[in-house]
Give the backbone structure.
Amino acid sequence: MKTRNSQRKIISIHRRLFILIIFFIALPVLVMGWLWYESSTRTIEQSAIETNRRFIQQTGKNLDLYIKNLENSTYPIVTSPLTQQFLSPALPSAYPYYQLTEKVENDLFAQMIYGRSDIVGISLVGKNSLQITDFSEAKEILDMNTIRSRNADLLKRLDTLGNFEILGLNRVGSSPVLTVARKLHSSSTYLYEGLLIVDLNLEQIENICKDESQGSFSTWISSADGELVYHPDAWKIGTHISGEQLMQMQGGEHASASASFRTGTPQGEELVIYETSRVTDWIVGANIPMKTIIGDLIRLRNISLAAALLLFMIALSIVGGYSLSITRSLTYLQRLMAKVENGDFNVRLTSTRERKDEIGLVFRSFSKMVSELNRLVREVHSSKLKEQELIIKQKESALQSMQAHINPHFLYNSLEIINSHAILENNRSISKMTAALAHIFRYNTGNAGPLVSLGEETAHIRSYLEIQTSRFRNLQVEIDVGEPWVRTVPAVRLTLQPLVENAFIHGYRDKKPTYIGIIGKPRETYYAVEISDRGRGMSADAATKLTSLLAGVTGDVPSEPGDTAPVGPREAPTAAPGHVSDAAREEAAASAGRGAGASAGNGPGAAPASVNDPVVPQRPAAGSAPASKPLRGPETPQQPAAGRTWPEAAGTQPDDGARQGGIGLLNVHQRIRLTFGKEYGVFLLSSSPGAGTCFEIRLPYTN
C-alpha cells in the first residue's frame, strides 16, 4: 500500500520541462534566430562584396600598371645597337665577345636595373648560342649552368611566345621569381633572333597587394591556369587553386571578369571575391571568412539578443525551480559516479534519495548498484588472493620435490672416485666422460638462480656433447659463440640442452647422429644462437604447427593432465628487453627449478624425473636410461604415440609407460619470454624432410 502511494505521488519532470521549453524558449528563439540569420547574412555578404571589390579592382589595376611599366622599360634594350650586334649570326672571337658583354651589362642592364629592387636577373639569349646574364642582384650564390640551361629551353619556344609574355613562376636558387620574356628582332634578317629574359622577385607584387588591402583581407594572385603567383602564405606560392574554384572563375555558370561566390573550406565557409585582368589574364582574388563579416549589423544583432534574453528570463523564471533542482541533483550524482569509477565503493548518499520523483528513483537504484558492486569486488579480491597463495605453494612443493631427487654430494663423490680410477688406469675416455658428467650435475644442482651468462650455458652444452661424441664416433660438433658475447649476453638456465636433446630424439630418429651446430650471431636488437642438425627434418605441416605453437605462447605454463593449473597470462608479467622484473624472476626461478631436476633426469645415466612438458616430448639423452631398463640408443629409438607425429606427439608416454623428465622446447620458449620479454624466445628458422632442422634462440644484450 505504501509503495502504491509513493508511485502515485511521482510527477514526471520530463513532461513539464519539455512542454515549457518548447513553447516558451525553443520556438521563439528558433523563429527569431532564423529571421535574423537570413537577413543579416544577405546584408553582410552584399556589404562585404561591395566594400572589398573596389580594393580588388584597384589591386588589379596597379598590377597591370606594374607589368606595363616593366614592358616599357625593356624597349631601350630591344632597340639598342648593342643588342643588334649581339644578335649577329657571326660568332665573335673571345675578346670582342668580352667587350660586348661588358658594354651590355654596364650600359643596357645597369640602366634597366637602376632604381629597381624587384629585378633579380636579366639574360640576353640569341639563336647564335650566345648568352649574356647579369644576376648581381641575387641574394645567394647561384648555379649559372642551370640558369643558362633554362634560358636555352625558353629560346626553343621562341616561335610560340608572344612579343612580350609572362612565363610564370620559376626558381632562381631557393627563391621563387616571376619570369617574363620579350622577343628580340634582328634588323638584318627581319626575324626574331633572341630573347630578353627578366626574373623578378615577388616583393613589389606583395607590396601592391598589401597597400591596397591595408590588412583588412588577404589578397592572392593566380595565373590563368590556376597557379598561385602570390599568396600571403609563402608555402602556397607555386601551388594551384582547386579545380572547382578555377572552373567557377573561368567557365562556370556565373563566370565573369569580376564576381564572387561562396566556397567551403576545412576552416569554414568563405566568400571569394575575384577580378580577372585583361592585360595579364591574372586572377586577383581574396578569401574572406564568413564568420569575420559581422560589422554592419551590430544594431540588429543587439536587438535580437535583447529580445531573446528577455524571453529566456521569463521562461527561466517559470521553470527555474525544476531546472535548478534537477541540475543540483545530477551534478551530485555525477560526483558520486566519478568516485565509483575511481574504485571508491563506500559512497554515502544524502537526503536526495528520499525524493518522490524520477531523481529519487535514480539515486535509490544507484545506491543498490554500488552496494552490490562492493560485495562482488570483495569476493573477487578474496578469491584471487587465495588462488595466488595456492599457486605459490604448489610451485614451491614441486621445486622441493624435484630437488630432492638428487643428492649432489653423493653424486660428486661417486664421480670423483670413478674419475680417479680412470686416471690411474690411464683411461682418458672414461675420465673425460666422468668430468663432463660431473660438470653437468654441478651446473644443474649447484645454483637455483634462473639467469646465467651465455658462456655458462655454452660450457654446459660442451660437457653434454662431450659425452655424446664419446658415444657416437661419427658425430661432428660445431660450437661457435665467441667473445665478448659469452660474457655480456644473459641467458635462462638450461636453454641450449633441451633443443640439442630434441635434435637427438626427433631429428636423428632411426638414424645415427652426424652433426650438431651451435652458432652465435649478433643481430641489431638481439643476439641469436642457431641450433641446427642434419637429421630427418619436419614436414611443412609439422613445421607450420610448431611455428603456430611457438607464436601462441604468451606466458601460460603448459600443464600435464592432472597437474595444477598454471599462472595465466595476466599473472605472468613480462620485462622490458634487457631487464628482468621481480615477478618474472620468480616465475623463471620456478621454471628453472623444474628444469634443474628435469635436466638431471635428462643427463647421461640419470633417473627419470616427474616433470614433463606437455607440448614437446622429451626422452633421455643418448646413453641414458631408467635404472631398471637397459641402455637404449638411436638404433632402438623411442616411438611417438601411434598415429601422431612431431609436434603432435606431445605429452605421450614411452613404450614402457614411465614418464620421461625433461624441459620441453615450449618450456624453454616461455621461460625466455617471461624473463626477457615477448621479443625473445625460440623460433623455427627452417626444416624440411631429409635436410635437417634449424632453431634460433633470441637473447637480449645487457645494458
